[in-house]
């Protein structure tokens, strides 16, 4: 199957799911970065999250049709009562205010909607969020730090919460990266996550794995992820 047919089918699946998480960076970080997929290209970020409350399968196809606007539409499935249930549907738009440069910094702006189509919330519009990622490159991109500041509008509880995140990427090898982060809101305990990212095919096929938990959360709040990221060459008109 050629690349454009592959991603068109993925986008179709995501749109059907929408009919029936705040901002995400390049897998496996939750803290966003000041990067977007290449102009006229698409990507698929997918992963399994294993946790005590039920395992989740995520798929987030995204494309950059204009050169500086990345659009993402996808969601997650969770096994509940022996069956699969659509637990999250997410749409996000992201643009670069200043592209990230080697040994320099970059700034982006993202906004989106997360809808939880479960039995209790089917009539809710969903949670809106706004995020400003700032990324700083050190040592010729061998170490990159990301800082996020944003807000999340909880429509169910009619509350607005401040969100934040701090993450790092450390190159151990041209194909292997150590990633670590902490993130949260202005209330409740923050979370942390750490793991590895590996390029199977440089700049095209990536796999990753992480371990995470809530600070002070114990074994009941821990989670593990295994992810796959696919990036296409430029093909959009």
Automatic annotation (TrEMBL):
Keyword Signal among record annotations: yes
Signal peptide from the UniProt entry: 1-25
Keyword vocabulary terms for this entry: Signal
Keyword match Signal: yes
Highest rank taxon of the organism: Bacteria
Name by which UniProt lists this protein: Transporter
Organism: Cupriavidus necator (strain ATCC 43291 / DSM 13513 / CCUG 52238 / LMG 8453 / N-1) (Ralstonia eutropha)
């Amino acid at each position: 199957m050629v690349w454009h047919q592959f991603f068109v089918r993925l986008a179709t699946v995501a749109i059907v799911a929408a009919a029936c998480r705040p901002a995400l960076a390049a897998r496996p970080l939750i803290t966003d970065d000041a990067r977007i997929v290449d102009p006229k290209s698409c990507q698929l970020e997918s992963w399994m999250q294993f946790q005590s409350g039920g395992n989740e399968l995520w798929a987030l196809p995204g494309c950059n049709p204009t050169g500086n606007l990345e659009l993402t539409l996808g969601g997650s499935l969770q096994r509940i009562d022996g069956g699969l249930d659509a637990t999250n549907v997410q749409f996000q738009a992201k643009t670069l205010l200043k592209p990230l440069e080697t040994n320099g910094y970059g700034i982006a702006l993202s906004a989106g909607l997360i809808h939880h189509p479960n039995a209790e919330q089917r009539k809710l519009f969903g949670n809106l969020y706004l995020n400003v990622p700032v990324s700083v490159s050190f040592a010729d991109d061998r170490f990159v730090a990301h800082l996020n500041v944003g807000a999340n509008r909880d429509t169910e509880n009619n509350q607005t919460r401040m969100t934040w995140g701090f993450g790092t990427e450390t190159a151990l090898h041209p194909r292997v990266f150590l990633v670590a982060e902490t993130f949260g809101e202005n209330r409740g305990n923050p979370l942390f996550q750490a793991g590895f990212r590996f390029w199977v095919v440089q700049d095209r096929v990536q796999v990753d794995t992480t371990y995470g938990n809530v600070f002070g959360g114990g074994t009941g709040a821990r989670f593990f992820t295994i992810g796959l990221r696919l990036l296409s060459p430029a093909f959009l008109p």
